Backbone:
């Protein structure tokens, strides 16, 4: 199955984010694209950002809420705003993750657990899969990328091992550029998360189109 392209709208400008998402959705359709209301956008605009993206695109919408506590309340907030998926931090307590999973099942939505900065991500991923998490996200954060020059490509070997071990979906994020996406798609990664390589491109629509073509060729 072809990998999905998740476009991370990591900006604080709601109008720009919605305008860009609408242009991409209009030009490329929603079939293989997920739009992410990035954490900076959510912290700036809350559930309004999710609602606006969903209404402007009618595409699968991810609320990158990075939930850490009160899982039922926070996830329901975003699900009711139109999110098809929410993110929870892998460092959150299992009870919080279970609360989000329960609310997601009640609402017919999915849960993505973000392993950003988790000290033993592989072991945690196995635990999360047993809990019934829908998508496990391997993620190299922006600050790490800037300060240490590390991107998601450094995780390729471990992600490939994880993909062989688990039946749940795997996502990858962290400085992914053109050429990187196809490498992950070839090993079966289900969701490729791309931010700046699209939203800061000279022509974001064309950049998104090229990523989709890379994923198509990789299948």
Residues:
């Amino acid at each position: 199955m072809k990998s999905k392209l998740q476009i991370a709208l990591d900006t604080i400008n709601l109008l720009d984010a919605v305008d860009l998402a609408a242009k991409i959705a209009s030009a490329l359709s929603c079939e293989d694209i997920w739009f992410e209301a990035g954490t900076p956008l959510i912290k700036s605009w809350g559930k309004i950002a999710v609602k606006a993206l969903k209404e402007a695109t009618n595409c699968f919408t991810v609320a990158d809420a990075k939930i850490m506590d009160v899982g039922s309340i926070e996830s329901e907030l975003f699900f009711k705003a139109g999110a098809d998926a929410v993110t929870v931090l892998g460092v959150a307590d299992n009870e919080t993750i279970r609360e989000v999973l329960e609310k997601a099942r009640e609402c017919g939505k999915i849960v993505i657990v973000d392993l950003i900065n988790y000290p033993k991500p592989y072991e945690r991923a196995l635990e999360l899969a047993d809990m019934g998490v829908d998508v496990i996200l391997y993620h190299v954060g922006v600050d790490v990328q800037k300060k240490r020059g590390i991107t998601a490509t450094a995780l390729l070997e471990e992600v490939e091992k994880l993909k062989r071990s688990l039946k749940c979906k795997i996502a990858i994020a962290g400085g992914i550029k053109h050429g990187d996406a196809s490498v992950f798609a070839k090993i079966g990664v289900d969701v490729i998360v791309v931010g700046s390589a699209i939203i800061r491109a000279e022509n974001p629509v064309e950049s998104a189109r090229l990523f989709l073509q890379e994923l198509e060729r990789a299948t």
